[in-house]
Design brief:
This protein is about 70% helix and about 0% strand. The longest helix is centred in the N-terminal third of the chain and has 42 residues. The protein has about 180 residues and is mainly alpha-helical.
Length: about 180
């Protein structure tokens, strides 16, 4: 039996190629943000469990020495903290920036925000370059308890987070010019 219902078509607005690219980039940045937040939640959970285990073993509740827990918790803390800084840039939740911007008249805030965004981008480039140098300089230096290379497992977080900060800083600057200084998502 054939379906005799009328076929309805939706007339959609024609999307300009530039707008389509912006939508795709926005979607990619949203997905990246979700991935970073998920990884951050996993890092925080793992860090909490490891520190809990460290407390149990340190106070002789169970007699199992675990010298690796402090190094692993520190490693997770570095990655978590730097990922959190990148997330803060994307969500525009750095209180210092908001506090300073609020001191100026509304008509001038777009320019202040743009300048702040450019400073974030420049700082991210600096952090990326210096982070690479730091990671390279400690690439083969082993941590004492885990014997993991410090440059690969700890300091590689610096250029990784700097790259994310750079991308989110650029997004912030672009929003200032395309949305007239209003970043309400």
């Amino acid at each position: 039996m054939a379906d005799t219902r009328p076929v309805t078509t939706l007339k959609s607005k024609a999307v300009k190629p530039k707008e389509k690219i912006i939508q795709i980039l926005q979607l990619l940045l949203d997905v990246l943000m979700h991935v970073i937040e998920t990884i951050g939640a996993v890092l925080l959970s793992a860090m909490t469990l490891i520190i809990f285990w460290q407390v149990i073993t340190r106070f002789k509740i169970i007699n199992v020495p675990t010298p690796w827990t402090e190094e692993v918790a520190l490693m997770l803390l570095v990655w978590f903290g730097l990922a959190g800084a990148a997330i803060g840039i994307r969500k525009e939740s750095h209180i210092g920036v908001e506090f300073v911007t609020a001191l100026f008249p509304t008509s001038f805030q777009k320019y202040i925000n743009s300048f702040v965004g450019l400073l974030i981008v420049v700082f991210s480039v600096f952090l990326f370059i210096e982070g690479i140098a730091l990671a390279k300089g400690t690439w083969e230096v082993l941590m004492s308890a885990t014997l993991l290379p410090r440059g690969k497992f700890v300091y590689l977080a610096v250029p990784t987070a700097a790259a994310l900060m750079f991308v989110y800083g650029l997004e912030f600057v672009v929003k200032q010019f395309t949305a007239g200084g209003k970043n309400d998502d």
